[in-house]
Design a protein that fits this description.
By secondary structure, the chain is α/β, with parallel strands linked by helices. The protein folds into two domains: 3-175, 3-Layer(aba) Sandwich (Rossmann fold); 179-263, 6-phosphogluconate dehydrogenase C-terminal fold (Orthogonal Bundle). 53% of the residues lie in helices and 14% in strands. The longest helix is centred in the middle third of the chain and has 26 residues, at 177-202. It is globular and about 65 Å long. The two termini are 25 Å apart.
Amino acid sequence: MQFQKISIIGVGLLGGSIGLAVRQRRLAREVAGFVRRTASLKDCERAGAADYATTDLLAAVSGADLVILCTPLAQMRPLAQQFLSALKRGAIVTDVGSVKADVVRELSSVLKQSGAHFIGSHPMAGGEKMGVLAARADLFEGAVNILTPHKTANAAAVRKLERFWQSLGARTLRLDAAQHDLLVSRTSHLPHVVAAALAGWVLDPRHPRAQTGLCATGFRDATRIASGSPEMWRDIALANRKNLARSVDALVAELKRFQSALKRNDARVIEKYFATAKARRDNWCAVCASPSSE
């Protein structure tokens, strides 16, 4: 038993999956869930993601050894300021946000007042479905979880949080928050923008009716993540806007190079374009599948 009480603030897909995994592995004596709407209380109970769920933020946080913020990024600081008075001294507070620099800077400062330890986390796991009823206890197994501790973070608390995520089946990695934001702008945030652009343009109702009928598995796979939460992705895009804007610029330049080859009818360049992409992706897949990559 790693913790006496874990509080999950926002019991959706990620929060619910954490709750299910913690309860299944018996990592805490008590799991509390905070939800904003009373209608969500029944869903939490039905999913089994917490021992109890409540709309009372202070009650959810009171006495917790570990508090996990699983809300959209823009809600994290206001919520932390609200539950500050209920926070146990020495508690660990973390989050599951996809952008880290601002969150780490702001919450480290806010929570320092209460003697708690804030350590940023980003589990690279999820799905396009939303809500606690989509939660899975195995969501984090084999996934990478990035920890972005502030330079002043308590070393023992960082190690304890690291062991927690590992107990859920994740592989942990420590990164500087700014470096994290740069890298995920390319690997996570840009793909979502591309998926949204494809879905928005190809499925535009102004196109002929036959258009949607010709969207098969390739289109479905490429646009799957466009079904994610618009509120969450709005916050992610704005919070990481500088890095994401540069990544969009780089992709546009890449597409223009391909467009130029098409206009020149340059078969050699076009084939090389696809061959390079195939080789790089195949190599990446092989590394991911290799036990040594663990």
